[in-house]
Design goal:
The chain is of the alpha+beta class. 50% of the residues lie in helices and 12% in strands. The radius of gyration is 31 Å and the shape is globular.
Length: 504
């Protein structure tokens, strides 16, 4: 693992100016876990105005003691500034007092000791500090040296964060209730870290979240949305949703989902609605959070549409009612319009009908128009997750394989005059041809030649060749072209079948 040079240079500049400076927080956690940190943060006893003298390009536009330092590559010839590669956040040691809104401190106090800064942090695994330092005698158990790239670093770990990393334990710093009263968002962050890191939530920390779950209402919808996206994007999103439910947070974030608790289903479904939705999320093969969110909410309307007919539970039109519910949910949580449309579209169409032998290429094209070409694979992933989440052992049955085959076959239209760089309008305009069967014959011949040599598919060549073809017996040429085209169509059809119809 490598600490970037610009981070080390910033630490060196601060120390040369007579200040302390540490890499701190989540980047140290990730580094110790041998993960590549997404961001690097530095804390120091230098005040913002002192930092601005050291980092002339820095900006200080907040009240939290954080100076933003742009990191640029060396300027290339003709450039005034090099390209921006990162923005380094350097923050003065601080403590915080009073959290009347359960989100922001009423007072920020700049401190002179690193210990005070670490005490205010949320979880032990994030309350770690690291700095390059010449090795010397130390007798404190919460400080130790380690070697990184032939350089000695001092690690400060006041609360056992490194031990918790090794045990895969997420534990609040100090008294959990106080940490969550300071900032209610930390409760969601706890669930997110458990999902992302595959950790276990320490019991006392879990009890504190359950006790204070209602204070999540003080957190903005945008912040909740962002944490929910991170949970859905994590390695174990379904475990994150289960933990939200266990800690009493889900009822404030997605109460519609909990309406499925205890709601029984019929036919091939062996799970109740809530459990089925969570298992569908768990088995979703897509890494896209939008598809995972659709998997979680695809049957959210079943409790509202449930009716018993002839002793069987039915849920007619639940996909359409569900799409409306999902739109309201995503609007409430301030999701973007684009993301909302993707998820709503998937939920609305997850019950699409497809039966091999009954569905034609035309109906598949209609499905493509209805769902959108970019969303087709997402829809199949949702259907696969739905099947496994219902207790069906096979995620991709033959008819879904056949649908994949048909979708590629019709959407790419691989062997058609539509692939040519010219069309009938070009022949009419540039070659003054009159509308006639001859035009179709010319285009067929051109297509057969392009299939033999794709580099011929450029406008200038095709127009020149079309002009010359008018003097030939086009019926004979067309017959030959048809053979080439049909042969190529059969080859492509076999290739696509081999790709998708693995069990046939």
């Amino acid at each position: 693992m490598i600490i970037p040079d610009y981070v080390l240079e910033a630490l060196t500049k601060l120390k040369k100016a007579g200040f302390e400076a540490y890499i701190v927080g989540g980047c140290v956690r990730d580094f110790l876990m041998e993960k590549t940190p997404k961001d690097w943060d530095i804390t120091t006893n230098a005040k913002p105005e002192e930092m601005l003298k050291i980092f002339e390009q820095g900006k200080y536009e907040n009240t939290f003691g954080t100076v933003m330092v742009p990191i640029r590559e060396k300027a290339k010839a003709g450039q005034e500034k090099g390209d921006l590669i990162d923005v380094l956040e350097i923050t003065t040691y601080r403590s915080e007092q009073g959290y009347s809104d359960s989100r922001h401190p009423d007072e920020i106090i700049f401190e002179t000791e690193i210990d005070k800064d670490l005490e205010r942090r949320d979880f032990t695994i994030n309350a770690l500090a690291l700095t390059p330092e010449t090795k010397k005698e130390i007798n404190e158990p919460n400080r130790r040296y380690l070697e990184i790239n032939s350089q000695t670093f001092l690690l400060i770990d006041l609360f056992g964060g490194e031990k918790d990393i090794n045990k895969k334990f997420l534990r609040a710093v100090g008294e959990p209730v106080l940490r969550f009263k300071e900032d209610a968002l930390r409760m969601l962050r706890a669930v997110r870290f458990v999902s992302q890191l595959d950790f276990e939530l320490e019991p006392k920390t879990e009890r504190a979240i359950t006790k204070l779950a209602g204070s999540i209402k003080f957190v903005s919808k945008e912040r909740i949305r962002d944490e929910l996206i991170k949970i859905l994007s994590s390695n174990k999103p379904s475990e994150g949703i289960r933990l939200l439910h266990k800690c009493k947070l889900l009822q404030y974030i997605l109460p519609e989902l909990e309406e499925g608790l205890g709601v029984a289903q019929s036919h091939h479904h062996i799970y109740q609605v809530y459990e089925h939705n969570v298992l569908t999320l768990k088995n979703c093969p897509s890494a896209k959070w939008q598809v995972r969110f659709a998997a979680l909410l695809h049957d959210v309307a079943k409790p509202k549409t449930r009716k018993i007919i002839n002793d069987i539970a039915t849920f007619y039109n639940h996909e359409y009612v569900g799409a409306k519910m999902v739109r309201r949910i995503m609007e409430r949580l301030k999701f973007s319009n684009d993301d909302t449309e993707i998820v709503v579209n998937l939920v609305k169409n997850h019950m699409f009908y497809y039966q091999v032998g009954e569905v034609t290429a035309t109906s598949v094209r209609r499905l493509i128009v209805k769902v959108g070409r970019d969303n087709l694979q997402d829809l199949i992933h949702l259907r696969m997750a739905d099947r496994v989440g219902s207790g069906t052992p096979k995620a991709l049955p033959y008819k879904l394989q056949h649908l994949q085959y048909m979708m590629e076959k019709v959407q790419n239209d691989p062997i058609s005059v539509k692939m040519l760089k010219i069309n009938g309008d070009d022949l009419l305009r540039d070659l003054k041809m009159t509308p006639s069967p001859k035009m179709g014959a010319v285009l067929d011949v051109l297509l057969s030649e392009v299939l033999d040599d794709p580099e011929r598919n450029n406008r200038d060549y095709l127009l020149d060749r079309a002009g010359k073809l008018q003097d030939f017996n086009l019926e004979e040429l067309r017959a030959q072209a048809k053979e080439v085209i049909e042969e190529k169509r059969e080859e492509d059809d076999k290739r696509i079948k081999r790709k998708y119809l693995k069990n046939k």
